[in-house]
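Submission checklist for the structure archive. All mandatory fields must be present; incomplete records are returned to the submitter.

[x] Identifier: AhpC/TSA family protein
[x] Organism: Chryseobacterium nematophagum
[x] Residue count: 370
[x] Sequence attached
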Amino acid sequence: MKLLFIVWMSMIPLCILGQSNKTFTVTGTIKNHKDKIIYLKENSLEKNINRFADSCTIKSDGSFTLKTLYTDEHLFSLMLSKNPKAGGVCMLVNDTENINVQLNISNPAENEIKGSVASKDLQDYIVKREGYYTQLEKLEAQKDDPDKLKTKREQLFSNLNIQYNNAIAHVSNATVAIYILSSNPELEWEDALATATGLLKKFPDSKELTSYIGSLEKWVEKEKEVKQFNKDLMGKKAPDFILPDMEGKQVSTGSFKGKYTLIDFWASWCGPCRMENKNVRVLYGQYKNKGFTVVGVSLDENKKAWLKAVRQDKLPWTQLCDFKHFSSEIAIFYKINMLPSNLLLAPDGTVVAVNIFGDVLKNKLNEVMR
């Protein structure tokens, strides 16, 4: 499930802020950085805003001050690039008018947030979740008994689910709740809608949550159409598509026959994709010598951002991209309207699974790779 793409990471039209009687101020310091400017990006569903609200030059001592007007509570990101698809260095919620942050670019876990309970809760959730994926990466690098590794791996995935469920159960802020829902790549649209609707009883005055539910309702309907299409794909041979790889060489998706192949649709700007990359990397390391491979199909438009994401996420498998975004021929054929998406092909090119992530993907590979 790909909620961050829809909610905050997608490109949505800018709009002009209306009248406001509050000023949101972020002060702080940043260390271990090479950038000269820091940006405050505002993301609001209810106001249909995705804009850079303010920026300033980082002083020689690393200090900065950012300000913007606002009317309602929503999500903000501190960024070191004005590229709208670049990732943020810290995410904040304007549940208060003044927030102070102490940022460490080399170790985000050391970031300190003062003055905002919601922002602190959000930071804690992100750090803990990233910590689990770091443990998974270290686990896969171990040369241990396969059964012991499997037990440890299953325990880590179980802990991830426990963290998510606990976070949803105890969340005290609507904006943080939306982020937590969006961070679970295994969550189905209908389940997300049911959970969000239940949370509205807890946060009845949240305009962001109401708008979020409206978006989910539309995507549930679209998902029904896509599911029928995917159902019709099962058991059929996947057509070949030719796209350029990282060096510009034309590669056919059909050239990987003979192995179980995961065609993985993603993009550098898609938060859930980047999270799922970690899971896929773990599974790739486990099965790459047993007749399994991955072909990444990026829907990026910017080559530099794409290549950077591949390096950052340490993706060792073939990567393809024609920089046509959702207008790519392969994306249109497979009705890709949200990310991440994928399909698993048998060695003969037959489609055996569509849009499986996290534990579901892991279990499917355990089944077919025996």
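[x] Structure attached
Curator remark: Residues 2-19 have pLDDT under 50 and may be disordered. Residues 22-110 form a domain with the Immunoglobulin-like fold (CATH 2.60.40.1120).
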